[in-house]
Amino acid sequence: TQLLEQSPQFLSIQEGENLTVYCNSSSVFSSLQWYRQEPGEGPVLLVTVVTGGEVKKLKRLTFQFGDARKDSSLHITAAQPGDTGLYLCAGAVANAGKSTFGDGTTLTVKP
Amino acid sequence: DSGVTQTPKHLITATGQRVTLRCSPRSGDLSVYWYQQSLDQGLQFLIQYYNGEERAKGNILERFSAQQFPDLHSELNLSSLELGDSALYFCASSVGTSGGGTGELFFGEGSRLTVL
User: pLDDT band for position A98 (50/70/90)?
Assistant: First the structure.
């Protein structure tokens, strides 16, 4: 069974602060996705990382895939209240038929 | 807008009843996935269909069943409902059996089921 552990589970910060959330597993994934989910809505895909060591940037968000493709991190610079939400990582194995989701990090950014 | 449509958005029913949740995938996507999200368990994979055939099964209860029709829409049937079945049920779609090799899923807005 492939498990993804996300940390921290909850994070509450002030606007303008930086933060990093982590997604760790003992399994190797073909790709890893990060999603953001707001209350009452479905998860929205933010990014996919495929290559070990890959770094992708999306405005103030920086995503990194571990060299061994077992872990990933999401760094947010100068967080804003609009970044508030549940951040989920999901790992996929080619042709396995499903993605495994972590339990998520709930981020609250206070103005 | 992800392009994935789920109905109904909200559903309130009683224990022992049966409900059907409906999902229309994004145009062109052949795979449909069903996930259950409850407060204490995160997103739990239930089942996946690809072009009408079941491709993967997760922790789906025997009281639950699903199918994908020729027009690629899918239905999740939940029967003999229990209080613990109250949750958000999400449908997601992707191009291929595992997101076209990248695992990218596009989610609907979910159906919130409340069992009283």
Answer: confident
**DSSP, res A82:** G
Residue A11 in contact with residue A97, Cβ under 8 Å? no
Phi-psi region of B30 (alpha: psi -120 to 50; beta: other; left: phi over 0): alpha
Query: Which residue's structure tokens are 């109904």?
Result: B8
**pLDDT at position B20 over 80:** yes
Compute the 3-state secondary structure of chain A and give helix, strand, coil in percent, each to the nearest 5.
Answer: 5, 55, 45
CB spacing of A97 vs B48 below 8 angstroms: yes
Chain A positions touching B104 (Cβ under 8 A) are 33, 45, 48
Put simply, whether A96 touches B (Cβ < 8 Å) is: yes
What's the maximum distance between 2 C-alpha atoms anywhere in chain B? 41
Phi-psi region of A104 (alpha: psi -120 to 50; beta: other; left: phi over 0): left
What's phi and psi for B103, nearest 5 deg?
A: 75, 10
Contact (CB<8Å) A41/B110: yes
Place of tokens 């002030």: A14
